[in-house]
Amino acid sequence: MATRRKLVPSGSQTVGPYFSIGLERLIDDAPKGTAATVEICGKVLDRDGAPVPDAMLEFWSTAKDGATGASTEGFPTGFRRSATDADGRFSVRIERPSAVAFEAGTAQAPHLLVLLFARGLLRHLISRVYFEDEPGNAFDPVLLAVPPERRYTLIARQRETQGGSYLWDVVLQGHAETVFFAW
Amino acid sequence: MGEVYPVETAVADTQPAHHYPPYVSSIARSPRMPLVLLPETRTERTGPVFGHGLIRERDNDLTAQHADDPLGERIFVHGRVLDEDGRPVPRALVEVWQANAAGRYRHKVDTHDAPLDPNFTGTGRTLTDDNGYYFFKTIKPGPYPWGNHHNAWRPAHIHFSLFGAGILSRLVTQMYFPGDPLQPLDPIFNSIPNEAARMRLISSLDMNRAEPNYALAYAFDIVLRGHGDTPFEGNR
Fold first, then answer.
1. Contact yes or no for B41/B4 (Cβ under 8 A)
2. CATH class name, domain B47-223
3. Would you say the ipTM is above 0.95?
């Protein structure tokens, strides 16, 4: 049962065009340790197909055992930040996610939660990215909740030449609009 | 019930709409297709935990990051980070960035004809303590013009970015100052329809925390979505 909340969450405001001066400290921090990693590259595009050169993406994957312990450097595993360049391109290297437990006996396919911030976004957007070579995608409860014709927008394509490297573009608006989740 | 229940969506009208035409940049960048309700799974209930190793000694003192003092009105900005039940959020990462006293950001995209201050970068970070309390020392940022519409000026503000317990508590917002006549003219500030919610983004002058003959203080409490349960207690 939902309990009555006492306080209303503070209102969101855009990160604006200058966020990198405050948030760059956590951008593109290379993964530490020996865990297998995955690279995700792509572009952020607006309604007109124009690149969004001032977007920031945050990627989050929960660890298999639920551990999110901070490293000695203070930087958590399973979290990466990436800003787009002048051509709207981003690239991130992060620990390869594994399947995540779901309801009894079932699992979600490996995925990352993505938060997207940009000038023009008064609230950040929430999406997810999956990997096209994961057979579990067919049974993933979140993908199955997405209209079938839009599921492809959440699935990163494997780059032929490089193992562990994927392409995933984000379209903010239009017929190929990426699926975003409500909050 | 199982592990899945719908993510609580924001209270109506206390958050901005994605598409808000007075803020021109939102027009071509905001989604128009229906947002999909996301079940809250372990991915959503967990979130990154930032360690103290991430914070350097002077990261919460924006006036002490260079050889000399920055120009401008020295101020303290402080407050508490709370969850929706009013409980403090400890170890929340709070990152801030702002313009200098002349209304200029130290950023290559900012071309406003106002001087940079060699003694001011305008960025800070800290972790809340066990009571959810944070504290920054900085200078009051200046208002500045922007290209949204003719003669558009942003009211003075400090950008805040916060991580609480669980990734869905993530918040980026802006803190404003009391008595700023530019606020009613600002489409970003006005994007929050609910007046009470909008006013909560305005800090309050805090003479109890001000230091005589040294600095004024502004208090700004922040409420994050969700509750303070440990992120993993729902695991089965």
1. yes
2. mainly beta
3. no
